[in-house]
Specification:
heterodimer; A: 159 residues; alpha+beta; Arc Repressor Mutant, subunit A; Alpha-Beta Plaits; four-stranded antiparallel sheet; two-stranded antiparallel sheet; 6 helices; 34% helix; B: 389 residues; alpha/beta; Aspartate Aminotransferase, domain 1; Aspartate Aminotransferase, domain 2; three-stranded antiparallel sheet; 41% helix; 13% strand; globular
Chain lengths: 159, 389
């Protein structure tokens, strides 16, 4: 199973036939296993990593450090949920260190994101402080180098 | 007009040129060629290894090193062999760092072969073996490994080729071009054969880290009584994706290493310090990157093994290196015809088996050191080719 997950992590679009050959099982088994992994919520989604800069579309990403006052019984979870339910919020992590939640927000413009933070996020009860950092340029994301200049420089044939 | 060819040593003149020249020239002109003809990893050297070399240059490491190589590197090589194969080598006397296994192979032959001495060379094999023996003044004696035995050499194959002049045996497992490996029992049989005929064994284990399916590499020098009798050759090119660094090593008894060092000293002086620094890093911290690459090769191996069979080509499952050696006799073509036709018609480059010795005729070498996407596309083209013959 681990090997199947690793293969899909690298490329979720691999044909079942190819996966079957690599894993030495039948195509049917591959499909069964994948369905099971989806069912068990081990595979949550099949994402596409897009270099938006190249499409000419503007998106703004902000990484926000959020401080909270934890609540009795539920700690940070209830506030975290109030935050992660917003569509604008892409990622939420509970953190150790000098702040509590790391929140990643995507918007169409800086104004857009600033508005969301000021009117929605900072006003949630229990949020005591926010610090926003706007992302300027991605170099590497999820293990993929954005503008990788390294290429295959090998001779076309060698013995 | 001076005919310069007349001035060239007949020994050199008689060494055949590389068997891939023709294919290389055609493939080089093609835009969309998929090459399964490459004998090196498609990975670039792991960054931590490259970075250590850059740092070394910044610190001014640009000098010669000891002829035998940096002591740190020799120590790491000995530690590796102790940990992995329980072999005790002394970094001061048993190790020589060379410019790739190629140099080690050359000087090993020059060290042990007197004019007329014979060296047994199982085929199919890496193309340099015979040429190095000839250039060293020895006589290479090719011994065909049997296709029926998945190209694993046995004492029975070797025995008829032994003569009073036989001095050495050269084995290279995991094997280029077949991907075959030998089991412990098979290697032990070779070891007994070596003792029986009092042979020196050169064991080229450059693909030793690349074994699959839970099979562990057996180091020939680690077999009983083989340590002193063996000239063990290895390097960093294949396992650590460091082909262009040109760094390898030889391990043997102090006398042979001292003699090899003499040739090395007078011809090469030392291996480049930059590559030696990188090799130290590879041995100290590179294993996890190497394991990851090996697991990638393994996936590709299973894909190509399955795909070639689906295409109707018979092949045995390779357990080492990154080559697979399908039998193409069912197509009615010779190895060269097959390689040429598939290159021209389907733009797939692979190497005809006879480039690795006569016994490779009827086979082609496919390297799976290329991406899964490329392998999938190549397999589709091969299947199309075979079905439309």
């Amino acid at each position: 199973m681990r090997e199947l997950l690793e293969l899909l992590k690298h490329d979720a679009r691999r044909p079942a036939r190819e996966l079957a050959a690599i894993l030495n099982i039948s195509e049917y088994e591959v499909e069964q296993k994948m369905a099971q992994l989806e069912n068990d919520k081990i595979i949550l989604s099949y994402n596409t990593l897009i270099n938006w800069e190249k499409t000419g579309e503007n998106t703004v990403t902000s990484i926000i450090e959020v401080n909270l006052t934890p609540q009795r019984e539920v700690g940070f979870d209830a506030i975290a949920e109030r935050i992660y339910r917003f569509d604008e919020v892409r990622t939420v992590y509970l953190m150790s260190g000098s702040f509590d939640l790391l929140v990643i927000i995507e918007g169409k413009s800086m104004q857009d994101v600033a508005n969301f933070v000021a009117t929605r996020l900072a006003t949630i009860e229990g949020v005591t402080q926010t610090r926003s950092h706007f992302l300027l340029k991605p170099y590497k994301k999820d293990g993929i180098i954005i503008n990788d200049k390294e290429k295959d420089r090998r001779l076309v044939m060698s013995i | 007009m001076i005919n310069w060819n007349d001035r060239i040593s007949p020994v050199v003149k008689n060494v055949p040129p590389s068997g891939i020249r023709k294919f290389f020239d055609i493939a080089s002109e093609m835009e969309d060629v998929i090459s399964l003809g490459v004998g090196e990893p498609d990975f670039i050297t792991p960054w931590s290894i490259r970075e250590s070399c850059v740092y070394g240059l910044e610190q001014g490491y640009t000098s010669y090193t000891a002829n035998r190589g940096l002591m740190e590197l020799r120590e790491e090589i000995c530690i590796l062999h102790k940990n992995r194969f329980d072999l005790d080598y002394d970094p001061k006397t048993n190790v020589l760092v060379t410019v790739g296994v190629s140099e080690a192979l050359d000087i090993a032959m020059r060290t042990i072969l007197c004019p007329g001495d014979e060296i047994l060379i199982p085929e199919p094999c890496y193309v340099s073996y015979k040429a190095c023996a000839t250039l060293a003044g020895g006589i290479p004696v090719p011994v065909a490994a049997k296709a029926a035995n998945d190209f694993r050499i046995t004492p029975d194959d070797l025995e008829p080729h032994v003569s009073p002049k036989t001095k050495a045996l050269l084995i290279g497992y995991p094997n280029n071009p077949t991907g075959a490996i030998l089991s412990k029992e098979e290697l032990e049989a070779i070891a007994r054969f070596a003792i029986k005929h009092d042979l020196i064994v050169i064991s080229d284990e450059i693909y030793g880290d690349l074994t699959y399916g839970g099979v562990k590499h057996i180091c020939f020098a680690g077999l009983p009584e083989m340590k002193d009798r063996t000239i063990l050759l290895n390097g960093f090119s294949k396992a650590y994706a460091m082909t262009g660094w040109r760094i390898g090593y030889a391990l043997s008894n102090p006398d042979i290493i001292a003699a090899m060092t003499k040739i090395h000293q007078y011809t090469m002086l030392c291996a480049p310090i930059t590559a030696q620094i990188a090799a130290v890093e590879a041995l100290r911290h590179g294993e996890k990157y190497m394991r990851k690459m090996v697991s990638e090769y393994d996936k590709r191996r299973r894909l190509i093994y399955d795909g070639l069979q689906n295409a109707g080509l018979k092949c045995f499952e390779p357990k080492g290196a990154f080559y697979i050696f399908p039998d193409i006799t069912s197509t009615g073509l010779t190895s060269e015809e097959f390689a040429e036709k598939i290159l021209i018609q389907e733009h797939v480059a692979l190497v005809p088996g006879n480039a690795f010795g006569e016994s490779g005729e009827g086979f082609v070498r496919c390297s799976y050191a290329t991406s899964i996407e490329q392998i999938s596309e190549a397999l589709a083209r091969i299947e199309h080719f075979v079905n439309n013959l």
